[in-house]
Amino acid sequence: MADLTFGIIKPDAVKAGITGSIIQRIIDDGFRIRALKLIHMTLKQAQGFYAVHRERPFFPGLTEFMSSGPCVVMALEKTGAVPAWRNLMGATDPAKADQGTLRKEFGASVGENAVHGSDSDENAAIEISYFFSQIEIV
Length: 138
Ligand code: ATP
Ligand code: MG
Hints:
Blueprint: E1 4-9, H1 11-15, H2 19-28, E2 32-39, H3 43-49, H4 59-66, E3 71-77, H5 81-89, H6 102-106, E4 115-117, H7 121-131
Helix pairs in contact: 3-4
Bound molecules: adenosine-5'-triphosphate and magnesium ion (MG).
């Protein structure tokens, strides 16, 4: 699944009504949306998704937040999709994110930072298959 990455429009951004603005920015940046749906994760599903962070102090807050409301999950295609999507998102901490990035514009804090993106091709494949079946990827 090279040149595919996985993204989430997190509950803070969906709640703020900026889902459409973020999707437009994704399209304008040249990504092709291969899969997209609105879901509301259970705490268990959020814990499974962020299992790599389970020993971190922020894990309980992170998984509670990610299961606090609906979010939009997406499979995105572009050449070099993983770094391209992380570039568009910006740094994890919105205060440190570059101008023009989604987290700079829409993120409120390290915890509530509007979007998620995979950090490697390997994790992109794992994360896409966590949320989408083959028939949902067009
Ligand atoms: P993401 O995986 O969501 O795309 P990231 O790869 O930039 O973000 P990670 O280190 O993977 O950052 O952390 C995952 C998520 O955990 C972050 O997006 C953020 O919401 C939360 N997080 C990370 N560090 C902290 C922290 N120090 N305090 C609170 N939340 C944090
Ligand atoms: Mg990460």
